[in-house]
Amino acid sequence: MDYLEIEGGYRLNGEVTISGAKNAALPIIAATILSDKAVVLKNLPNVVDIRTLLKLLAMLGAKVEHSDTEAKIDCSSITSTKAVYEIVAQMRASILVLGPLLGRFKHCEVSLPGGCAIGQRPIDLHIKAVEALGAEVSLEHGYVVAKAKNGLKGNKIIFDKITVGGTENAVMAAAMAEGVTEIVNAAKEPEVVQLCEMLDMGGAKIEGIGSSRLKIHGTNGKPLEFKEPIEIIPDRIEAGTYLCVGAITKSEITLKNVNTEHIQTSIEKLESMGCSFNIKKDEITIFPAKELESVNIVTAEYPGFPTDMQAQFMAVATLANKESLIEERLFENRFMHVSELNRLGADIWLKGNVAAVRPVKELIGAEVMATDLRASSALVIAALAAKGVTKIRRIYHLDRGYDRLEEKLSKIGAKVVRKKS
Ligand code: UD1
User: What pTM value is reported for the model?
Assistant: First the structure.
């Protein structure tokens, strides 16, 4: 199995080009199911999760041409509407095919995603949303079986809890429904916004894009038409991760191809820790703090502080001058990086969903294990600042979401190599 060997303690310098956002690309790939014409996607990140979803679409019968950052997807040839366990078990986000398959074909079967390292992550809200649009849903042999014999009908969907994937599935299901669907308490993440803009341009008119109240005018069974290539927005989590790399290694790093509006909370937190920035339109340079100040973080839905940046900030906070408090409000088990960071010499204490990060003078290289995608990047960040060599095992988690990580880090001077054990 591959592992990363990182020799830490070096100052880095240079430019990193940020890739397209995995979490924007996934629902957009799923949304291509709503069209019976070929759709071209650009600026895709070259990561495993994208290849997994493209494989699922190909298994359904779509014609998929994929090269590095581009894909041409033609869903006119779909013959199956069953998303099998083999794929869904690899990637939970496969559940995103539920809404579009049901919307276009009036029935589908999607394997239940099962457990997940960062918590229970149920899909009850996805199911409630399609039921509100008239689908009959049953659970059979580990599959969600959804049927809407006469097609979906617009209705009001009120989410009890803000859910990114649930909102995405709801808008995709509503896109080809008859009549108008209103979604209350919708997620406002930039990835949801890009999906809505795509559907809107494809013929399902959407009001309130970017707000928590969306109104979707369904096409009444008419497939959507995406005429222009769709350029995936920059990955705000990848960008935030490289800013954390700069902060902890005390390095000046410039990020290219970023949307700085999407990373406002990360910028503000790093400013409060003593870092400064030069911000241009789609470029940002971080100037490190002389001494890292402590930070207090509470994760929240967008535009709040993203849960997907919690682990990386925890890594940076280990070397701050005072104790930091980090509260995780979205996922109940998203602290698995704590014990691994402590193996690198950090001093982090957990009480419920709050981590107290006590300052240490230095981190020291050790063997550690990646547990989930963002937890893995926290270990990389810590390893880059740690004295000596760190070996990070189970890096398939990183490969799911970080495009060419070693290449990008090596380019700015980091000593990172991928090895096989
Ligand atoms: C997406 C992101 C993930 C990010 C998360 C929160 C993708 C592919 N993944 O995940 O990186 O960490 O948003 O920003 O975009 N919930 C329920 N019932 C449901 C659905 C969700 O209770 O049916 C709960 C979840 O357990 C969690 C909260 O709602 O506590 C938010 O989850 P959600 O926004 O749905 O996350 P994902 O879409 O899975």
Answer: 0.97
